[in-house]
What does this fold into?
Amino acid sequence: MSDKTAGTLAPHRSRTKVPEGTLYRGREGMWSWVLHRITGVAIFFFLLVHILDTALIRVSPEAYNAVISTYQNPVMGVGEVGLVGAIGFHALNGIRIVLIDFWQVGTKYHRLMFYTVLALWLVLMAGFVPRHLMNVFGEYWVG
Amino acid sequence: MSLTIENPRAPRTRRSPGGVNWEKWGWVYMRVSGVILVVLIFGHLFVNLIVGEGVKAIDFAFVGGKYANPFWRIWDFAMLWLALIHGANGMRHLVNDYAANEKLRKLLLLALGGSTAVLLVLGSLVIFTFDPCPANSPADLLPSFCS
It folds into this structure.
């Protein structure tokens, strides 16, 4: 087995006591994997509910409007920030996973790409959150 | 299967020689559908949450207005199938990883497969049999083109 392949299977022989981590073992590789799983599960359960609530358009306008209006109250409005945050991370980190798999130097830059994911996520949320909260809390605005 | 981890250096074994490698195609599906879903879902979120009054504007008339155009029906149909199968396959991995009891694992996979099939059929029927102007409904709840 060449040194190159051995490097992907065994942890780095580092002089420091803190392990540097590989693609999935420890540090950025592991935490991105953990976040990908947690956000994935959260999005999956939202999707189940979302298909059912949208199905009410086939029942009656009154039924759909009654249920969708719960999405418009302030508590759910804050929840939607969490939902979009989860979707945004899962999407950006998903692209990172595709790049790790298919880009020649993907494994080399997987850590840098993780921080790029976090930076792009912040930009995405900076664009979404103020706009969304103004829509949700606009009527409570006094000024 | 879920309790033991194969030796990483064990030679590859095929369960059914010459058969379809479903795990490989599942792997491919996650990546292909994932990239398409980034476009579909970001577009969906932009149109429904950012444009105009965002979530406040969503009601029956809003959805009826969108579905007057077949473009959005196809968009949502593609999103439904790609996202739900993507999510169900992801959940399948979690069940395989964490359900230590074999009977529980089988039960969870069955529930997952059943609910996915039901929701795919339900969602598809809703998208393609939807009537934006149902009879005997108050006009103020319907899209403006109904009257």
